[in-house]
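Much of what follows relies on a compact textual record of a protein's fold. Each token is a code from a learned vocabulary of local backbone shapes. The record below shows the convention in full.
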Amino acid sequence: MAPPRGASTIFVAAATATALAVGLGLAEPAQAQGRGCATTAYTDPPREVLSCPGGVSITARRDSQYRLIDRNRDGRPEGAVLNQGGLLVDTPPRRGPFQILTPHAIASVRGTTWAVDVVPTRTSVFVQTGAVDVRRPSGPAVVLRSGDGVDVQAGTGPLQVTRWGAGRAAELLGRFGR
């Protein structure tokens, strides 16, 4: 399923997460999982696609454990906290911000196609097109543009933006059939 022209795509894969949402002041971050979103299951690769009000589409790997963030409880998620597995999120143009909260980083869409991959020791963010802000839970942001990536590990040092090779980007995007 391809996003509409001009849509934003967030791609997230995670192994572990903490109570990051509570630490960021999101103590009541989400509606019931999938509430208000129509769900379709696929087998290759195994995943579920949630079509949510407001045009947001969330693809969850079958092994994913996550929680949608819907602060105003209008059925239109503004983000997600991922505990395990992976998410790919397509947002329509001019919809407003959408954030993925991981143990190491906060990645915020800025009208683009991008991916976030989380393993226990780091969060990696890659931008296919457009631009994305990435920061640690506390600290300054870096802006990634098309072809850029960053690996965020625990610590406080500056984030180092690098160009990703085609192989690394394709491997990440391929996990969701892209």
Q: What stands out?
A: Confidence is low (pLDDT under 50) at residues 1-8, 13-33.
